[in-house]
Amino acid sequence: MKRTSPIKIQTCATSTRSCRYREAPMYRKRILNNRVAETMNRPYRTFILYIVAAATIILGLYYLPDYFLLEKATAESATFLLNSLGMNVQTRIVDEKVFLSDVKIVKDCTGVQVIAVFFGMLIPVPKARLHKKLLTLLIISASLYFANVLRIALEFSLLHLHILPWSIAHYPLSLLLGVVGVLILVLVSDRLLPEFGDYLFSFVRPRRATD
Hints:
Elements: H1 4-63, H2 68-84, E1 91-94, E2 97-100, E3 103-105, H3 112-122, H4 130-160, H5 166-192, H6 194-204
Antiparallel strand pairs: 1-2, 2-3
Helix pairs in contact: 1-3, 2-4, 3-4, 4-5, 5-6
């Protein structure tokens, strides 16, 4: 009877130690699972912040400034180009409204909505130097301005020469040229600022978390 008690105590102690060894890996596995879940959710929180910042910049640039000077510059540039081609075109300003002959030039005619979108997409990109962002945006903005002047001159020429009616020369042709131009500028921006493409593709194929 005296030998059984110590044996029982020793057996219980041994079983307790073995239980600890069995429980330790399960506890570690739970910690790793929590870390993996937290790491996998982090890119999506970053993406939400990126979307909020981009939307704020786009809406602010599109709605807040007064683009009368840009409308005037666009109309005058198109006027110079058309007159260089032998047409007699004048820029008129009536009550702070800009006209290219009898065609009204409004904010959307300047392409500022596309410029605002590029500003909103490129400015919040992390891990990219500010001077590279500004240089890319400067090149894109200048390219958009001159391409938009060419577009307006082309549409006005087709209308003036009675090749296409305004309903076709303005909207379908403008939409087609705009889509092609935006695709080209996206490729140019990815070339000038490769961090932009890398950042967007990182959300499509997120990396697996490692301990």
